[in-house]
Structure formats: structure tokens, C-alpha cells
Amino acid sequence: MTKAAYELALMAESGRLLASVFEMLDTMPLIGLSTLDIDTLVEHFIVDDLHARPASKGQYGFQFVLNSSINQVVCHGVPSASDVLKDGDIVNFDITLEKDGYIADSSKTYLVGNVAPAARRLVQVTYEALWKGIGEVRPGARLGDIGHVIERHAKKNGYSVVREYCGHGIGRDMHEDPQILHFGKPGTGLRLQEGMTFTIEPMLNKGRRAVRTEEDGWTVVTVDGALSAQFEHTLAVTAAGVEVLTLRADEAHMPGRLKAAA
What is the pTM of this model? Predict the structure, then answer.
């Protein structure tokens, strides 16, 4: 469950490379691009420019490099030539990358063009919820502490937390123990230890938390058709607190390393 120093160094490199994928997407004018266009672009960047492997492709039979989840799609959206991004959309790109045997996993919800204030607020609160959870990570903390602060922040702002999907341990395998729930009670659950690596990836809905999977077997949507947003980072528990392994350039103002409480 915990990683040795050399493994953490390899995971940090995978995380750095994955962050650069999002930095590349940050420069792209997304309006008018299909999600399949973006999938192809990301695959070329990971393979040809970064000399790494898109870890999602082929995982569990999935044939694409990324998940592209637009508006009411909660997660696992399948790239398609017919899904063309338009002004006012929100879209989450969930991308994994493997380098030298170790995997990093991250996602970001993008605002496409002129996004309505209500959608913009959902995206902002979801991002804040991610960082609320990250702020609880330190040796000796409990998994319930993470879930509690995420759900509390969501509910305070009038949003619901999806419960069917969660964060996860990560390393040589994309999904390892433990599961990281985005709801819970403080002081409960597994106690965190230095060297643990996992993702936090809250999904917040503007309406009810209920979701369903479409007939393709992948795409998860809100039952009531309300908007959903998600953000995700890969983290390592350190002696001092936590290190965000997939920290992006647009997050230079965020604490990439958080110290444990005294």
C-alpha cells in the first residue's frame, strides 16, 4: 500500500508529465473541436512528445485515451466525433499516463467559451472541494476526514456528491487500495501513512446525486439531467503532509506541498 522512495520519485515524474498534458490543453481553443479530436491530440502528445503511455487505453476494454464528460455527464464519457464542444459547455477531461511502470491520474473541468454563471459556480465549488479534501491529507489522518470536508463544502453550496464513484490508490496499477470516498465521518476509516499514494476526485451535481449508466456501458449521467463537474489529483502522503504529484501550471498559486498540522 505504501511506496518506497524510488517509487515515489517515479510517480512524481509520471505526475509531472501528466500535468503537462493539461497545460497543453489549456492553450487549445476548445469550441468546435470534437471530443474524439481531443482524444487523438492527447494520445499523440503523450506518445510522441512525452514518450509515455496513455494508461486508460485498453484498460477494462476501453478504447480511448481519455474520458470526456460534457455537461450532465458525470464521468466515463466516451470520445466521439459527434460530440462537438460548443459555447457554454463544461467538459471534464480525465486522463491517465504511465511512465517507467508507474501511473498518474488527473482530471480537470474546462469552461468552454461563455459559460453561464450557475455552471461556472458549480465548477468552482467542485475545484474548492477537491482542495478541501487535499488539505486533510497527512500522516495519521483518517479517510473519513477527507470525505467529510468534501461533502460539507458541497452541501453548504447547495450541491450533491456522487457516491457511486470514488478516488483510489494508484501506483503500478491504475486502481489500488484504498478507496477514497467523497463523503464520510471525521475520525473514521483507514489511517493515512507516509508513502501512500492515491487520488481524490470529487464529482458534484447541481441537482440530485442519483446517476445512471447509458447503454454504451460507460457513460454515466445525472438522472435528473442536471450539470455535473469533477476535478482530480494524484497525491502522495509525505512525512510533512501531502505532495500533489499532478499539480498543473495554472495551479502555481495553490500549495503543491501541504504541511501536516503540528
Answer: 0.95
